[in-house]
Amino acid sequence: MRRFLAAALTALATAVFPVLGHAQVFGQYTPAETVPVNGHLLGAYLNASENFFGLLTQLRLSFYPDVDFGFQGGLTRIDFQGTDATTVRLGADFKYLAVRAAQGFPVDLAVGAGLGVETGDNISVLSLGPSLVVSRNLAIGSSAGVTPFFGLGLLFSNLDVLDHETTDFSVPFRVGSEFRMSQDLRLGVELQFRIKDDFNDDVSFVTGVNIPF
């Protein structure tokens, strides 16, 4: 079942987003814990707010302990200042698990950074910045559980929107939970709050699925 779902999501990502890559600047999507060495995680997410609706896919991988890399890609439908447009989101990020809860700290803590590009007709947004996320794994039985997480970023953006070019500094804050239905399937929900963001809506909702393989 896990391999079937992973293959289906991979096919979707390959068909819809042939250049797969984008960054955590658009959302947190996963807790602080990193993908194990030589492991992979495939995800797909719906992002909705008052003026935005989008689909993203993500591939995370690791080849060094406590460090993983994320590649995401997606399409978003935007209603911005009365103009409807479809944009493509691409980029990359990395995450380092600095502290584990098992080491006596109450939560897992990870730091990272990301670079993201969003482009469409008369819309071009380049964003980059560092991020921090904390989470705590709460087991329920042998394989199920829930992991609440909180993410905070500092985002620097260059916007060229509707022939108006400007720079923007915002503080995205994300709060959510990942629900482990089994070892092979994780469901996630996330609320995103964007402080002083001149382009995106102030609040958005994300739901999706993560599949390790």
Q: What letter string, H or E per element, gives the SSE order?
A: HEEEEEEEEEEEE
Please state the CA-atom Rg, rounded to the nearest Å.
17 Å
Determine the mean pLDDT: 86
User: Biggest sheet, in brief?
Assistant: 12 strands, antiparallel
Number of strands: 12
Q: Helical segment tally?
A: 1
Kindly, what is the distance between the CA atoms of the first and last residues, rounded to a whole number of angstroms?
11 Å
Structural class category: mainly beta
- Overall shape: it is globular
Q: Considering DSSP H and I runs of 4 or more, what fraction of the residues is helical?
A: under 10%
Q: What assembly state would you assign to the polypeptide chains in this entry?
A: single chain
Content of β-strand? over 45%
Q: What ranges have pLDDT less than 50 throughout 5 or more consecutive residues?
A: 2-23
